[in-house]
């Protein structure tokens, strides 16, 4: 299996998130289902920081087409994780969104993930090109002095 790399230079957002009691599984660490929920929260906040909503970018909603998660360390109740979100400039219909969860206390990477988002035509529900306003916002977010 190829190790998923987080594209540092394309990081556009950082969001602290705390592991809640309900996020813990029977192994006494962050469960996979809760991890995906934390990633979703961070991704939604990153897109909101660009001025959009996953449910409406230029009139089009997004859907998740693919998700890859690689686990690197455990996280436990009360851990503060920093969710970093990176967005390479999208082309075509798919938009890769990379995320990394880092435990704040020791800077250890807990997980790295990549989700591919598609935007849909609201009438036909068929994939469309990534809305140009979103592409421009992603590019602006990485401009010098924007962080």
UniProtKB/TrEMBL annotation:
Record-linked SUPFAM superfamilies: Thioesterase/thiol ester dehydrase-isomerase (SSF54637)
InterPro entries recorded: 4-hydroxybenzoyl-CoA_TE (IPR050563), HotDog_dom_sf (IPR029069)
Protein keywords: Hydrolase
CDD domains per record: 4HBT
Pfam families (UniProt xref): 4HBT_2 (PF13279)
Family, as annotated: Belongs to the 4-hydroxybenzoyl-CoA thioesterase family.
Protein name (database record): Thioesterase family protein
Organism, scientific name: Modicisalibacter tunisiensis
